[in-house]
Design brief:
5-stranded parallel β-sheet; binds 6-phosphogluconic acid; single chain; alpha/beta; binds adenosine-5'-diphosphate; Rossmann fold
Length: about 170
């Protein structure tokens, strides 16, 4: 995997359960790397957003078009421009699907416990995701594994520190 990787070019997928900080860290990272940023939530079909807003978690079937759309965006990311994109990517098969479109994808898994995720989602304003679905996110979560290109980092560290550690790891692998 390392041989395929180039920090400026490989798409970075910031993953993890709702509330782990994907959007916060992803935006900051994209700014730091000077690459485009995409919010994975924007790729959901409207019915998925309605489902979550109505307290019904997504499943493999309902996530399928969303993952396909994210994979499509990753596929067209220019070789030079790079990309940071957020996607919960909770299950390994979802990540496999994204890797089909971009085998060089680098996953950053932001980890935190369920209480902290609950608290963050409950206190977040202007977002469709209810805290009632956080438990289902942990049920579905299959953490990033050692043989998957990427890194796992404590989501409760300050965002600046998380971004600095990601940049260090990207530079190390280039
Ligand atoms: N490293 C962090 N430390 C403390 N709070 C954070 C951190 N990252 C994100 N947050 C806060 O947690 C909440 C969820 O973050 P968000 O980026 O929306 O997560 P996600 O996109 O994974 O759902 C927001 O209120 C955000 O400000
Ligand atoms: O796979 C899923 O069940 C959803 O994509 C979910 O993981 C995502 O968390 C929501 O879209 C809420 O958005 P945030 O993750 O940004 O809170």
């Amino acid at each position: 995997m390392a041989a395929l990787f180039h920090a400026r070019r490989a798409p970075v997928v910031v993953m993890g359960v709702a509330g782990c900080g994907k959007t916060t860290v992803g935006r900051y990272l994209a700014d730091s790397l000077r690459v485009p940023f995409e919010e994975g939530d924007d790729f959901h079909p409207r019915r998925n957003v309605e489902s979550m807003a109505n307290h019904t978690p997504l499943d493999d079937r309902t996530r399928s078009p969303w993952l396909a759309a994210i994979a499509g965006r990753m596929r067209v990311a220019g070789a030079e421009e790079g990309l940071v994109i957020t996607c919960s990517a909770l299950r390994r098969i979802y990540r496999e699907l994204l890797r089909v479109s971009r085998p060089d994808a680098f996953f950053v898994h932001l980890t935190l416990d369920q209480d902290e995720a609950n608290s963050r989602v409950a206190h977040r304003r202007s977002h469709y995701m209810p805290a009632s679905l956080v438990a289902s996110q942990f049920e579905d979560l299959e953490p990033l594994e050692d043989d998957e290109a990427g890194m796992t980092i404590d989501a409760t560290l300050p965002a600046e520190r998380i971004v600095a550690e990601i940049q260090t790891e990207l530079a190390r692998r280039t």
